[in-house]
Amino acid sequence: MEDLNASGFLEIGSINGLRNSSLPEMRNSSLNPSFQWSTSHKVLPPCRQFWKAGDYSAVDATQPTSKTYQNRMRVHPKFLHSNATSHKWAFSAIAELLDNAVDEACNGATSVIIDKIANFGGSHALLIQDDGGGMDPESIRHCMSFGFSNKQSNSSIGQYGNGFKTSTMRLGPDVLVFSRGCKERSLTQSVGILSYTFLRQTGCDDVLVPMVDYNFNPLTRGFVRMIRHSDKHFRDNLSALLRWSPFSKEEELLNQFNHIKGCGTRIIVFNLWQNDNGDPELDFDTNEKDILISGTPKARHNSRFAKDLNEGHAYASILYLRLPENFKIFLRGHLVDPHYIAEDLLYKQCIKYKPQVAGTIESEEIGTVIGFLNGAPHLDIHGFNIYHRCRLIMPFWRVVHKCRGVVGVLQVDCLKPTHDKQDFEKSDIFHKLENRLKDMALEYW
């Protein structure tokens, strides 16, 4: 059973089944829209810049908030922010959400949609939606918690149970999750909100996740409230969802499921972060068919492939070495055509290598395709594109600072990616591979 505080909300900071300390007393508020916090609590103004969002203090954070003598590990809401700083740019965060959708191919997913929702709470919101198996009430609680992951197969991209939290909080402070799933012939709908705005502005010193569930009633052919604990528990969670989301009525909230045909998951990140100039970090307006990162100067390349990775289509097109059969990515309503970098190379060579540590072969043979991009050596782009389980981890990694126009593509499953999937753990095998790639680039040059 999930951890509940006095107001009936899920607390997501549990470790090894130990419940977190309880949250600051909610008095009798149930967090309904009409509740007013005591005058001793200073309501913080909204913060719209990601890199400044961690600067706040919780109410009475130095005082013990639990009358228990058990030692408990607590998770301060600031951790949601600090955990998300692993993503240095917004596209790596979007890629994490795409990974979850691609992993759903084993549950029947055929596509993922990336788009904007205009005027969602007064500004644009980011939509990520797949048509996979969806999540039942237990699974969505694991999704909202830290460290839960049942992705143990060699084909799954995700493995740490942390990507959803880091990615969504890097894109914006608030995310709504709508999921319809079927487990043991029981069809359910669940809605949850992970809201840094809610936690910050109410001064919480622990993490609350309001969440409600619904069961399909075959007699009425409709969904009815699932009372997991008590009516009050359900009302408290629903009240918080309506208070801290753009929806004012339960009906409006549930209408979002009309966009899900069959099973699947609909994720909406809203109150998207702004840059220091006050412009939205994600630019939906410059190109109605794409997503750009605002404020990034556009690079000039004379290669067909060497598009600026500030363009969402370009990044999404090379993100996967191979997609599951019949799986498609739609960005702003347009199909993203996979772009295989190796097909762009001239004078290609395939070089095979088996990493060895202390004289022992540590992995399967690694094959690297290396060649010149069209336009070399006058290009300012070069390096190795390293994939893990078909997912791009290190794009155009410059192991040497010359060899202009020389590009390599390889997949390395023996290395372990860092949890933001933008680098690899610096093991002995990694350093051996780095040295081999340096030699390979210089020899080819």
CATH topology of the domain at 77-270: Heat Shock Protein 90
- Which whole number gives the mean pLDDT? 82
Tell me the span between the first and last alpha carbons: 60 Å
% residues in beta strands: 25-35%
Oligomer: single chain
Low-confidence stretches: 12-41, 60-69
Q: Helices and strands, in N-to-C order?
A: EEHHEEHHEEHEEEHHEEEHEEEEEEEEEH
Q: Return the CATH architecture of the domain at 77-270.
A: 2-Layer Sandwich
Radius of gyration equals 24 Å
Main β sheet profile: 9 strands, mixed
Strand order of the largest sheet: 9-8-6-5-10-4-3-13-14
> Helix share of residues?
10-25%
Compute the number of helices: 9
Total strands: the figure is 21
SS-based class: alpha+beta
- CATH classification class of the domain at 77-270: Alpha Beta
Outline, from the CA principal axes? elongated
Domain Morc S5: 314-445
Protein name: Morc S5 domain-containing protein
Subcellular location: Nucleus
GO molecular function, one term: ATP hydrolysis activity
